[in-house]
Structures are given as C-alpha cells and as structure tokens.
Design goal:
One of its GO terms (molecular function) is diphosphomevalonate decarboxylase activity. Belongs to the diphosphomevalonate decarboxylase family. It comes from Ascobolus immersus RN42. The chain is an alpha+beta fold and about 350 residues long. Helix 1 runs parallel beside helix 2 and helix 5 runs antiparallel to helix 6. The protein starts with a strand and ends with a strand. Bound molecules: ligand DP6. The site of ligand DP6 has 14 residues, from helix 4.
C-alpha cells in the first residue's frame, strides 16, 4: 500500500530583494520582498512524494542523488506538515494514519542548482505543495508559504503565480511572515522575462552565509532594510497595480544594485557579479537611452546570471539586440500561475 502525489512549482525572481534574516532557524527576513513567478515550462521543480506503511525510513533524491535528510530543512518542512496531518487524524479517527508512515521524495529541477537561479525556491514550494495534497491538508497558499519559508525564504513566494509579496512580519514565531498575491498573471499578462545564464557554477557564498555577513558587518544595510525597502515595497506594489513598466523597471534595477551594494559593503565583501554581469547592466542602460524610454530591466540574485524583464510589445527590439551577442538567448518566459499537482494511488 502506498499513496503518491506529484507537483510542479515555478521559479520566482525577486524585483525587491530579500537579503538579511532576523531569525536564521525560521528564515524570518529583515525586510519584505516582491517577486514575479516565471513560467514553469523551462524553469521549475517537479517533486513526487509517496508514503507507505512498508517504507522503513524517510528518503530523498534530488536530481537522482540520494540526500541526507537528517537535520535537513527538507525534513523540517515534512515534519511541520506531518503535525498538521496528525491534527486531522486526531479529529477524524476514520482517516489513515499517514502522519506515521515514512516518506520518499523524488525531486528534479531543470536549471542549475545553487547557481543563483532560485532553485531552492521552486524545490521547497513543490515539496510543500505535493505533501499538502498527499495529506489532504486544508491549508491555503499563504499558510503553505509559511512552511516553505522554513525550507528557504524565497520559496514562500513560489506558492503563488503572478506578482507576489512576502511580508516580513513582526512576530517572533513567524506566523505573520507569509506570502500574499499582489496581482494575478491575468492582471499584467504581457510581462516577459529572459534569463541570461552567464555561469552555471555554484554560488561563491551561500545565501544564508552571505546574508549573515551583511547583517553583521554592512553599515549601509540598516538604511536599506529599515527605510529604503519599506518605501520601495509600496512603490513597487503601486507600479504593478498601475502596470507602470517604467517605474517597475527602475525600482527593479535600483533594488538589484542596492542589494549588490550592501554585499560589497559587507566584510569580507561578497561579490556575486562578474564582468559579463556588469556588461549586461551597461547594455540595458544603453538600450533604454537609445529608445528614450525605460523598456528593459535587469536583476541579479546571488550569482552572476542576469534576469531581464520587458513587455511583450518590446520583445522584438530586445531579442534583436541580444541575438548577436547571445545566440543562446531563448524565447522569453511568461508569468506563471503557480504550483499545480496531480495524484496517483
Ligand atoms: C538574492 O531564499 O535562497 O535571491 O532563505 O537562506 O534559503 P535562504 O535564502 P534564499 O535567498 C534568496 C536571496 C535572493 C533574493 C530574493 O530571492 O529575494
């Protein structure tokens, strides 16, 4: 006897960055953030979970390799959901005692893991979403975002499609540190994103380690998380609601640059961008100047890879400029609707 569910979850790329934790154990951030969820066709995690009374231990394979679950964030997420299931079982003795069964998790993603391409975001979102379906938990996306957050902060935002905010919250236990929808895909469907993979190597400094270093040493950081990000959060929400691409793009670029500035201001400095990343930054500003309007934005996470945002109506101009230098540039991603799942018995 076994029960299984498979779920797909998308990647999200922040336009107002999460950088800094007030609680490392629970991944509670020092500031709120906003992201756009990218299409699941090319960048996604697919996770199958199965439980059976015949399984003798919890097992987890990531991209075909058996992982150590002991003490991992993955098992922390599983155990939070097991507790939720146990509550249902206590209330209804007719339910199968799935909370006592061991679990097998098989997860695959189709993009470079730990290359600053938000692989953990899609991975934990798919894990949490699939287990919630398997356990038939009555938790909405915001409630699930809290569980995914414990795995990886940015994954809280991958529970929703479209335009998503992760509210930092104030509570010590993290109950108000959750993701909410700013706008669905249908609100601004002509947004496009292009990922320029500059290097598929591992991050030089992990997000957690980097954030701790910034929180502990950057003297510019307090101004960012206490004053500037709160202002930008509301400006970005307004830009998305008004579908004002010029403001969206400018805020996105400024926030990416400030995130990398506080990284440089950390000691020892954290350097995620390389010369190619900086050439992309110059190219985008040149492009916008040439067309006399802000039509293109860049953003960089904890690595050198660029994500460009632009509107469908400008995609011919963007792609024709990029083609000669980047023959591998792919069809732009659309904004996605969020995780989806299916189950087998
Ligand atoms: C630069 O979510 O990977 O991409 O909570 O330690 O797992 P952990 O960090 P993670 O950090 C992402 C940082 C970022 C900005 C962002 O996605 O908001």
């Amino acid at each position: 006897e076994a029960l299984a569910v498979t779920a797909v979850a998308p990647v999200n790329i922040a336009v107002i960055k999460y950088w800094g934790k007030r609680n490392v154990e629970l991944n509670l951030p020092t500031n709120s953030s906003i992201s756009v969820t990218l299409s699941t066709d090319d960048l996604r995690a697919i996770t199958s979970v199965a439980v059976s009374p015949q399984f003798s231990e919890d097992l987890f394979w990531l991209n075909g390799e058996l992982q150590n679950l002991i003490g991992s964030k993955h098992i922390n997420c599983v155990n939070i959901l097991r507790k939720e299931r146990a509550l249902l079982e206590a209330a209804d003795p007719g339910l199968k005692k799935l909370s006592n069964w061991k679990i097998r998790i098989i997860s695959e993603n189709n993009f470079p893991t730990a290359a600053g391409l938000a692989s953990s975001a899609a991975g934990y979102a798919a894990l949490v979403f699939s287990i919630s379906k398997l356990f038939e938990l009555d938790l909405n996306q915001t409630e699930l975002s809290k569980v995914a957050r414990v795995g990886s902060g940015s994954s809280s935002r991958s529970l929703f499609g479209g335009y998503v905010a992760w509210q930092a919250g104030n509570l010590e236990n993290g109950d108000d540190s959750v993701a909410v929808e700013v706008a669905p895909v249908s609100h601004w469907p002509n947004m496009r994103a292009l990922v320029l993979v500059i290097s598929a190597g591992k991050k030089s400094v992990s997000s957690t380690g980097g954030m701790q270093r910034t929180v502990g040493t950057s003297t510019l950081f307090p101004a960012r998380h206490l004053k500037i990000v709160p202002e930008r959060m509301s400006q970005m929400e307004d830009a998305i609601r008004a579908k004002d691409f010029g403001s969206f793009a400018k805020l996105t670029m400024c926030d990416s640059n400030q995130f990398h500035a506080v990284c440089l201001d950390s000691y020892p400095p954290i350097l995620y961008l390389n010369d190619t990343s900086r050439a992309v930054i110059s190219f985008v500003h040149y492009f916008n100047e040439y067309y006399g309007a802000v039509k293109l934005a860049y953003t960089f996470d904890a690595g050198p890879n660029a994500v460009l945002y632009f509107l469908e109506e400008d995609s011919a101009q963007v792609l024709s400029c990029l083609k000669p230098v980047l023959p591998a540039a792919k069809i732009p991603f659309e904004v996605d609707e969020g995780p989806s799942g299916f189950c087998f018995d």
